[in-house]
Amino acid sequence: MEKCPVLRRLPRRMVLCLHFTCAILGACALFTLYLESENAVVSTAPSDLTTTKFNYETDKLSSRFQEPYSNNGNIQVAKVVPPSWSWTSKDSIPSPTSANKLDSDTSAKNNSAIPSSHHHAVYYDKTKYIYLTSVSTTSTNRPPRVTYRTVKSTPQPKIETTCHSFSMQNSKLILLWTPFFGYWGYFPSENFQHCDCRNCEVTTDRSRLSESDAVIFHARDMSLSDLPSIRYPHQRWVFYCLESPPYSDFPGLQHMKNMFNWTMTYRTNSDIVTQYGTIKRNLPPRKVDMQSLLSSFTNKTKSVVWMSSHCPTDGGRESYVAELRKYIDVEVYGTCGSSICPPGETNKCLQEFSEKYKFFLAFENTICRDYITEKFFRTLKYNIIPVVFGGAVYDKFAPPTSYIDALSFKSPKHLAFFLSGVGKDFKLYSNYFRWRKDYSVRVNNRKECDLCTLLHRTDLKPSSYSNIRKWWVNESHCRTWKPKR
Annotated region Disordered: where (predicted)? Predict the structure, then answer.
């Protein structure tokens, strides 16, 4: 023991280890008892405690949607059309400055609705009911968006419809009241053959107004003196427009109150969204021929090209291009420039542009909410980078890193310097084409399919736009670009 002092200290260390182990076990036992006591407390709580709190919060939330209209200028007032009701401008219902409280049964009905930022009000025997967008407008034909990936949405009940995919049983009749810029074939019946819901038919015969389920009015061909005298209770009158408000607004629009039930435009909050192009995910992903792209990049001899025959414009794009040309070479085709692209040969011209130029100015004539035309979507099909100019949030409509947004730069001068840098570096240039691996572009829309499907929905409540001009013009937030001084 004296030769090995370690052995003499060994019993003392064993005792310390034993004490330490006992302390840990005791702490674990106390923690287990604490958890069991907490569970016992929760189990003995009143069963209606959380329910009461939830109902209280729900009542608070629902009360926000029962406040007088004067507190919310975005609410669209609507009117149920009774049988044999004749539409005239004097029948419009102004937004009330106050609202009577709903009875308890009405409150229970409204509380079951999903919150939304856009509402429609409906009148039944002078009693006001508020229906949210999820019931009566756009969101009825589009699934809700999930904000966080970790959140799982509860399965939605299947929507009952009267649609028959392969027969014309219970078909819906769509009446074209106006042409589309003088052309009557803008809603071809054969397009329904490509829809899931295809039992709809189209007519231009106004004598069939009473049997029509939908009546379409093109904004640019409408006239206040040429409207149906009666809107039948089962009908939906549709406001159709693909032009931006500065080029589709007219004095008569402000008198068409409570006239339209649905909207069919490029705006994403329309009841039927008719965008100029769509993006589709590639499954499986496609291979991008970077070698061919490199060869195309090497053979390009010019920088920027713009093709336009509309000058001047409400958005001021011609002013932006004039400023841009001070810092980078821009060749202009069309009546706005000195070069010509023959009529009807746009695709051929774009192919030639993609062989010579590195950038194409896909500038819209207005800067308005969601307004993107085919000039952007068709450019994506060619080996040339589109430079966009418009009021839409392009990330919502276009593949990632597929374009350059001119209005995101401080000035045309800053954009010119950026284009010059990208045009000299193939690595930077090629990044704007890598999206083709995962996405494809379609220059079309499904307005016929979406309208036919919506007409067969059995869960929609009556509603209309109390002020279509406010929705279409004021809420588009159009503006004009002007150089900073």
Answer: 86-112
Would you state the pLDDT for residue 8?
Answer: 58
pTM, 2 dp: 0.69
CB contact set of 446 (below 8 Å; sequence gap of 6+) = 195
Query: What would the two tokens of residue 354 be?
Result: 């993609």
Report the run of H or E that residue 429 belongs to, with start and end.
helix 426-430
Query: What is the pLDDT averaged over residues 80-102?
Result: 37
Torsion angle, alpha carbons of 250, 454, 228, 275, to 10? 20
Cβ contact 277:444 at 8 Å: yes
Predicted confidence (pLDDT) at residue 453 exceeds the cutoff of 50: yes
What is the model's pLDDT at position 110?
32
| Gyration radius (Cα) of the chain, Å | 31
Q: If we measure between CA atoms, which residue out of 415, 418, 419, 374 comes closest to residue 397?
A: 374
Question: Taking all residues of the chain, what is their mean pLDDT, rounded to a whole number?
Answer: 77
Helices then strands, each counted (H, E), the chain:
12, 16
Q: What is the DSSP string of 7-30?
A: HHHHHHHHHHHHHHHHHHHHHHHH
Helix or strand holding residue 55 (H, E): helix 49-64
Q: How far is CA 360 from CA 95, 305, 335, 348, 403, in A?
A: 47, 5, 17, 14, 10
For 258-270, what is each residue's pLDDT tens digit?
999 999 999 999 9
Distance CA 420, CA 418 (A): 5
**How far apart (Å, rounded) are the C-alpha atoms in residues 324 and 360?**
13
Q: Collapsing DSSP states into helix, strand and coil, what is residue 110?
A: helix
Which distant-in-sequence residues (6+ apart) come within 8 Å of 273 by Cβ? Answer: 138, 142, 265, 266, 267, 445, 450
| Mean pLDDT value across residues 320-339 | 93
What's the chain's length in residues? 485
Mean pLDDT of 367-376: 96
Tokens of 298: 């090497």
Closest CA to 388 of 415, 410, 413: 415
Read off the tokens for 460.
Answer: 């929609």
pLDDT over 50 at 208, yes or no: yes
pLDDT of residue 190: 87
**Rounded CA separation 314/76 (Å):** 28
Give DSSP secondary structure letters for 335-397. TTSSB---TT-HHHHHHHHHHHEEEEEEE-SSB-TT---HHHHHHTTSSSEEEEESSS-GGGT
